[in-house]
Every structure is written in C-alpha cells, then in structure tokens.
Request: fold
Amino acid sequence: MKSLVTLFKSLFYHAGLNHENMQGTGFYYLLKDAAKRNGMEIDEKCLESQRKYFNTHPFLVNFILGMWLTEYKNGSDPETFKKAYSSAFGALGDSFFWHSLRPFSFVFAAITGTFDPFLGVMVYLLTFNLFHLTFLFTGYSLGMELGRDVIVWFNRIGFNKWPEHFDLISVFFLGVFLSYMFKTGAEISVDIFFIAAGYLAMGLILAKKLDITLGLMINLILSGIIFFQLGV
Amino acid sequence: MKKIIFRVDDRLIHGQVIEGWVKYYKIHRIMVVSDRIAGDSLQRMIYQSALPSGCTLEIMNVEQFISSFEKLKAVKDYTLVLMESVEDLARCTDLIDNDVYVNIGCVACREHKVEVSNTVFLDLDEIEQVCSIRDTVEVYIHKVPWEPSVEIRNFSKLLKGGL
Reply:
C-alpha cells in the first residue's frame, strides 16, 4: 500500500521543477510525506536542506527516496549517496526512458495504428507506462530494502544495457513494419527491393559513422524518389 | 572539436553527459576527476554502472590526474574529463593549453552565487578563477553539443562592482 501511495504522489513530483533547485522542491515533498507515513522523525534542518538542488530522472526518484530513508534510519550519511545516485540515475533514465523506450513504444503503436488508430494510441500509452509505472512502484520498496546498495539491483538486471537491447528490437520491428508498408503500398520487384535495402543500409552506416540526422535526411530523400518512381 | 574536453559539471555523469557529449562525439573514454569520489568504492561503482557498454571510466583524484596528464595527451581518441567544481578546474590550470576545450556545463545554485546562465551559478572566488583560466584559453558555457556555446567574457566589470 505504501508503494502505491508513493507511486501516486511521485506522479506530481516533477511539478515543482525550476532551474534554481531543479527537482529539490519535489524531493522535499516526497520525503516529508514518506517519512510521515513511516513514522520517522527527521531533523527539521536536515529536512529543510532537501529543498536544495536535486536533479535526477523522475521515473527513478523513488529508488533514491527509499534509499535515503533507510540510510537516515541507519544513522549513516544519505546525502553522499543521494548525490551519486541522482547523477547516475539521470544518465540511466535518460538513456532508457527518453531515448529507447519512447521510439520502442512508437514502433509498436505505429504497427497497430495502421489497423486501428485508437488501438495505436492505446498501445503506445500501455507500453510506455508499463515500464514507467513499474519502476515508480517498485523503486520505493527496493530502495528501502537495499539502501545504499540499490545499484546492485540495477547491475543485476543489466539496466545500462537495456537501451541497446530495446533499440535492437525497435529497429527490427521498424524494418518489419516498413517492409509490410512497402509490400502493401506498391508493386515491388526484386530490383526495387534490393535498392531499398541498399539505401537503408547506407543510411544506417551514415548515421553510425557521421551523423544520425544526415542519415535520416538522405534516407527520406531517397525514399521520396523511390516512391515517386513507383507512383505511390 | 578538440580531442580533450574539460567539463565542469557538478552532476558529473548525468543524462546530458551520456546522451549529449558521449554519444554525439562517440567518446569511449571518460575521466572523473574528484577527490571526493576517488576514495569511495561504492560511489565509483554507482558511476561505473551508469555508463553505456563500450565506454571506459577512470576515476582519480586531482593530484593523480595532474601527474598522468602527459600520457592522456598522447592518446588520439576523444577524452571527456569531468570535474565537479571550478576550484578543481583551477587546480588543473597548468595543464590547459590550446589542445583542450574547456566548458562549464552545470554548477548548481547555492546561496551567494550569481546566475551566469540558467545552469551555471558562480560565486566571487569561482568567477575570479574562471577569469584567470580565460587568460590562457577561452572558457565556454556549453550544455550539450548541438546547442550553441556561449563564451564567457571578462567578468572584471562585474567584479569591480562588487557583485
């Protein structure tokens, strides 16, 4: 139940974002509330200091919240680890949630959206929020249980490799989706198929070696030419 | 872009660093220079765990970094050197020459600090230290590579005015 309440409250945590203390106000709000529900007395000065600068990924904040309470209860210094975890989770969260999970959810939404647009929107929301809410829900109890060692759990699940794996799956299904669109949208001969596959490979090489925007631009221009030639 | 990047960012390894600098310039080598973290094995592990695969992280204190800098200059790949404070950067002033790109990414707001940009807040001592580094090379405020960098101009007028 505590995890569920923390999950609900943490949905509002990001509302206090500002460029002076970033998410400090939100963390103070979460901490004060969680301490009260756990029957913990936190020194007033220490609690006030939580309003100071704090910035992490908002979906992973509950891990830090749980860790902070456990370390405080054990009489150690939670501030050192709060700072280290806020930075590390900022990096891990940005890589996974913003740069991998969003395109991943989009690919599946696009695939289902071709059959039913409403279903596509629902698939996007469900896929993205499945991970978002699961991490917010489990973060608090795992942070409380593991304290400063919460990073061990992230290492156990190999979380820093998730963006790579999710990107691979996204690219694979994007290929399947584009092939399907091509097949249903135009008459495709073997020659055209290999030209299309060739320019896709070229775009990927350009994106990898030079610049992702340049790779995408060249692919879009070539796609336009091919579609124009095919009369799509 | 110069191959050696000195960046002052009090968050050290963070989303902007990984998704911005590391992926944009395909940096495989990151160095964190901090006396505070160098001696703490758990904090080292936390920062290590935040890296994408294929990236190596070296964590050392300022003295170790200064003594090993000559070896770093011989390496041809991009190297991102992250420092926690302007004070640490000032301690490395002798290492800075035209081969080094110096940028300040984020120094959080604290009491008695002046807002230099929306992510950089400096106090009087830090401004003086930045001014002294500026005598050797340009210092920029540069959040992420695809955003324009802002060169820090001389703060002398600001300093004379007593902030």
